[in-house]
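User: Second chain of the day. Same drill as before.
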Amino acid sequence: MRPNVLLFDIDGTLVNAGGAGRRALEAALEQHLGGAVRPQEAWLGGMKLDGMTDRLIVREAMLAVGHPFQEALCDRVLDTYAGHLEREIQGPGYRVLPGVEVLLEALGARRATVGLCTGNILRGARVKLARGGLDRHFGFGNGDVYGFGSDGEARELIVGAALRRASARLGRRVDPREALVIGDTPRDIAAARAAGCPVLAVATGRFGVKALQAEGADHVVPTLESPHATALLLQ
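Assistant: Same format as last time:
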């Protein structure tokens, strides 16, 4: 089925934030839970954050130090995190990934239905995209298409939320098979599969082409400037 809705992940797919998210979240956790439970730089320890939602990361970080998870406290941590992120994102490690700007410009010219499907909270997503001037390609309000980390801790819930908003935007039920999820991690692939959506996996994050193929993605490309990616997304 031809993809009519394109749902993009952010980190590792559209941009590389240069570790800004990890640094900002560690600072927020230290600020709210510190009391020197552990050194700030070790708050997230060896956690592999690829594909995790912001809320799930906070939950896991709390549990790792024996702190009971509390929704209200998680909200405060994430609000503080977003403030730290606005500063951290200005670091020199940030970059827009290959092919992204040209692709989004082309999709905009074609008036394609484009949205976000990311574990980032809304404010964090906007900060990460704005740093590279990409926020203008996406909507963040009523009537726009997106799924954010605030829609659930599990990524499949985020895909489901994006599908509901796409249906509302288009005025009809969007069949999951016509919504293509574009991501860079096994978690992106698994969540799309759980929601019934096809996946274009791009190896611009931590996982290579072979690893993403092994996870069962429908399409795998090295970057979004790959001819296969542009042919699929601009058909």
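The first strand starts at residue 5 and ends at 8.

User: Great, on to the next one.
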